[in-house]
Design goal:
The chain is mainly β. It is about 0% helix and about 55% strand.
Length: about 110
């Protein structure tokens, strides 16, 4: 079974940057797609980005395209989300997903 630990959230001013990490342990595989989702208070969880490392492909939600970059360190079984030019509407709890396993989430708060 896969275990995920999400870290890197925090409080940042609009226009700032953060880097989130998702560390995978247990029955890991570089073939697994790894994705980021986020959930703001009172809203449904929404897709942010996915890294399909084995296919050499990444994709992003339109709302973050050009500002967020997903990457993976296969040797460390860790996925990253570099978030630049943050906006108040990016405020949410960010979750990593691998197959059917969710991380615990990490809170990102962007002040205006």
């Amino acid at each position: 079974q896969v275990k995920l630990v999400d870290t890197g959230g925090g409080l940042v001013q609009a226009g700032g940057a953060l880097r989130l990490s998702c560390a995978m342990s247990g029955r890991t595989s570089s073939d697994y797609d790894m994705a980021w989702f986020r959930q703001a208070p009172g809203k449904e969880r929404e897709f942010v980005s996915v890294d399909r490392w084995s296919a050499g492909h990444t994709s992003y939600a339109d709302s973050v395209k050009g500002r967020f970059t997903v990457s993976r360190d296969v040797a460390k079984n860790t996925m990253y989300l570099q978030m630049n030019s943050l906006k108040p509407e990016d405020t949410a709890r960010y979750y990593c997903l691998v197959r059917t396993t969710w991380g615990q989430g990490t809170q990102v708060t962007v002040s205006s």
